[in-house]
Amino acid sequence: MKFRYQARSKEGELQVGFVEAVSKDAAAGILTSHELFVLSLESAEKENFFDRLSKILKKVRYQDLVIFTRQFATLMEADISISDSLRALNKQTKNPYLKEAVFDISNDINGGLSLSQAMEKRSDVFSEFYISMIRSAELTGRLDEAMNFLADYLEKDLTIRNRIRNALIYPAVVVVLFLVIGAIMVTFVFPQIKPIFEESGTKLPVLTNLLLSSGDFLKQWWIVVLVIIALFAVLAREYLRTPEGKGVSQELLLRSPVFGVLFRKIYTARFASATSILVKGGVPIAQAIEISAHTIGSAIYSEILHEAADNIRRGEMLSSFLSRYENYFPPLVSQMIAVGEGTGRMDDLLMRISNFYSREVDDTVASLVELIQPLLIVIIGGCIALLFASVLMPIYNLSQVIQ
User: Fold this and answer.
1) What percentage of the chain exceeds 70 in pLDDT?
2) Which long-range contacts (CB under 8 A, 24 or more apart) does 237-246 make?
3) Which end of the chain, N or C, is surrounded by fewer C-beta atoms within 10 Å?
4) What pTM does this model have?
C-alpha cells in the first residue's frame, strides 16, 4: 500500500512524500527509522464505496470518546494504574468499536508499549492532538493532568458542536417541510384547478402561470429532476472532499456575513485551547501550533498555522505573524499573545483567549437562535402568501367575469 506522509527531520526540515508499506504502522516505522518525526500519515490508495461505508459504520461517536476520556481521567486521578483503568473502561464502554480499541490498547500496554504508542496504533479512533498530548504528558510525568485537560477540552468542544447543530436543526426542518409542501401543491393541487380557468378564458397572472408551468414540468419530468439533483449532490460532495473544494467552501463560509463571524470565533477558540494545553504539557510552541493545525477543522486555518510554525522556527514571534491575518485572527488574539510572549505565560494567555472566544461563541449562537426563528417565520410566511395569492388572484378575476 502507498501512504502520503508529512514529517520533519531532526533539523526541523519539512518533508512531504510517499512511502510504500504493508500497513500504516509499518509505514510509520519506516519513517521513524529514518529519524523523521511524522506529522501526518494517510493512505494514498483510492477508497471504494464499500471502504467508505465501512469507515462510516465503524466510526466512534464523538460523545462516546468524550465520556471515555472523562472516565479515564477520573480513574487516573484516583491513582489507579493504566492497565487496571483500561480493563475497567473496557467493561463499561458500550460502543463496540471503542470497546475494541480499548481492548487493543490494553493488550499493547501489557505487551510493553506506552499509552501513546498503543493509541497511535488506533489512530482511527484517537486524533493526532489526543495522542500528542498523551505523549508529551508521558515525558513530563503528568499523565493525570493531561487526561483532565483533554476531558475538559473535548467536553467544551462537544458543547460548541451541539449548540451549533441545535441552532441549525429547526431552520433546516422548517425549510425542508416548506419545500415538500410547496412541491406537492404545485404538482398535484394547482393542476386540479387549471381547467376551470382555461374554460372561463380568464387571463392568469404571471405568478400563477409560472407555478402551473412548474407543476406540469415536475409532474412529467420528476424522475429526471430527482436524478439531476442526486447527481449534483454526489458531484458536489466529491468536490468538497478535495483540497480545492474544502478551501473554496470554507472561504465562502468564513466570508459569509453571519456564520463567518461565528466560525472565525470557533476556530480561534479551538486553536488557542489546543495550543495552550500542548504548551502546558511541555511541547515546544512551534510543534504545538503544528499539531493544533491538524485538529482545528479548517483547511484554511490549518495552512495558516503550518506557516506560523515554520516562521516561528525561523525566529519570528507568533504575535507578529498572526497580526498579518486579522481577517482570520482578531487583533485581540495577537495582542494577548504578545503579552504572553513578553511575560513567559503563553499557556495562560492562550487559555484566556480560548475562554473569551468560547463565551463569544455561546453568545453568538444564542443570538442566532433568537434571530433565525422570527426571520424564518417572515420568509416562510411571505412564500406561503405568494402561493395563496397565485390561487386567490385568478379566482377573484374569475368572480369578476361571472358578475
Assistant:
1) 90
2) 243/299, 246/299
3) C
4) 0.65
